Amino acid sequence: MPKVTIDGISIDVPEGTTILQAARMIGEREKADRYVVPPTMCYYSSLKTSGGYCRTCIVKVTKGSERDPRPIPKPVASCRTAVMDGMEVANTTDPALLDARKGVVEFLLINHPLDCPICDQAGECDLQDLSYEHGTEASRYEFERRTFDPIDIGDTIKLHMTRCILCYRCVKVAEQLTDGRVHGVINRGDVAEISTYISQAIENDFSGNMIDVCPVGALTDRTFRFTSRVWFTKPVDAHRDCGTPNCKGEVVLWLKGNEVLRVTGRKDQWGEVESFICNTCRFEKKDMAAWTIEGPRKIDRHSVISQGHYQLKREQPVLTGPSPNVPALAKRNEFKDR
Ligand code: SF4
Ligand code: FES
Question: What is the pTM (predicted TM-score) of this model?
Answer without folding.
Answer: 0.85
